[in-house]
Design a protein that fits this description.
Distance between the termini: 76 Å
Number of strands: 8
Strand content: 15-25%
Largest sheet: 6 strands, mixed
CATH superfamily: Peptide methionine sulphoxide reductase MsrA
Structural class: alpha+beta
Order of helices and strands: HHEHEHEHEEEHEEHHH
Shape: globular
Radius of gyration: 24 Å
Number of helices: 9
CATH class: Alpha Beta
Length: 205
C-alpha cells in the first residue's frame, strides 16, 4: 500500500512539472540567404539554378543601376548601369555560396567583357554582386581558382561588385524557358551558349 501511495505521489509531481515550450515546439525553418549574379541573358542562366538542390526560388531582373523601377525597355537601351541579373534565394544548410558560384561559372563565358555570347552591351556584362566581405572573399577565391584551372586560355574578366538593389523583371521574363520552351531552346543554341558550355564543361555543365 505504501508503494502504491509513493508511486501516486511521484506521478502527481511529474504532471505538475512545467513544460519546456521550446522543446515542445517544432524546430524553426533554417534562415534563407540570397545571391545576385549577372550572366548575360537572364533567361539562359535561370534553369541551372532552378535545378540545384537547396535553391528555394529564383527571380530574374535588373541590378547595378540607380534609377528606380527599371523596365526591360529602359535597361535594354544600354543607357543605364543596369545589368540583366538573377536573384537566388537558397538554404545555406543545403547549398553554399561557393557552390552557387560553381554553377554560375558554367553558365557564362568568364573571359568575355563586352557582354555574353551574341548579347553585346553593358546590360549583358557578367558580374558577381557581393553583399558582405565574406561573399567578396569567396567570390575572389572562386575566380582565382577558375583562373588556375586551365579551363580558359584567356584572362577571367568577370567583375566582382558590391550588391545594389535588385528589381524583378516583368512577368513574361520569369521562367521563360518554361513559358516558351521552343523559342528559348532556339535562342540559347543560336547564341552559341550551349556549344560553348559543352566544349568547356562537357556533361558537367
Amino acid at each position: 500500500m505504501k508503494g502504491i501511495l509513493a508511486l501516486a505521489l511521484l506521478l502527481s509531481a511529474l504532471i505538475a512539472l512545467p513544460v519546456d515550450s521550446s522543446r515542445a515546439q517544432t524546430s524553426s525553418p533554417s534562415p534563407t540567404k540570397s545571391a545576385i549574379f549577372a550572366g548575360g541573358c537572364f533567361w539562359c542562366i535561370q534553369p541551372a539554378f532552378d535545378k540545384a538542390k537547396g535553391v528555394i526560388k529564383t527571380v530574374v531582373g535588373y541590378s547595378g543601376g540607380t534609377e528606380s523601377n527599371p523596365t526591360y525597355e529602359l535597361v535594354s537601351s544600354e543607357k543605364t548601369g543596369y545589368r540583366e541579373a538573377i536573384e537566388i534565394t537558397y538554404d545555406p544548410t543545403k547549398i553554399s555560396f561557393d557552390q552557387l558560384l560553381d554553377i554560375y561559372w558554367r553558365q557564362i563565358d568568364p573571359t568575355q567583357a563586352d557582354g555574353q555570347f551574341t548579347d553585346i552591351g553593358p546590360s549583358y556584362r557578367a558580374a558577381i554582386f557581393y553583399k558582405d566581405y565574406e561573399e567578396k572573399r569567396i567570390a575572389e577565391t572562386s575566380k582565382e581558382k577558375l583562373a588556375r584551372s586551365g579551363k580558359f586560355d584567356k584572362p577571367i574578366v568577370t567583375e566582382i561588385l558590391p550588391a545594389m538593389k535588385f528589381y524583378p523583371a516583368e512577368a513574361y521574363h520569369q521562367k521563360y524557358y518554361r513559358q516558351n520552351p521552343e523559342h528559348f531552346e532556339a535562342f540559347e543554341k543560336g547564341s552559341g551558349r550551349v556549344s560553348f558550355e559543352k566544349k568547356k564543361w562537357g556533361e558537367d555543365r
